[in-house]
Write a structure and sequence with these properties.
Length: about 90
Amino acid sequence: MQKETRNIGYFFDTCDGGNGAAEAIFTDFPKFTAAAYALASECGCDMGCSRCLHSTACPQQNELLLKDVGLFLLEVISQAALNSQNSSSIFGG
Ligand SMILES: [Zn+2]
């Protein structure tokens, strides 16, 4: 039996009724990931900050955040999104 190797990410907005962000991410994921990577990689901070990688909802106040790991993950996800743009859906297709 082959082990399941897919990874699943969830995007949602917390505005009552939604603000359209989750839908926009779903319909244009490669553009979203490229923009996220550019924003984080071009930020002048060393450890991540509220401008690039911090989440105001983080229960650990982002203390465990490693910017280098975040950049690595954003780069891998961005490349995977671009590679799958013209093939099957990255959302499980
Ligand atoms: Zn930053």
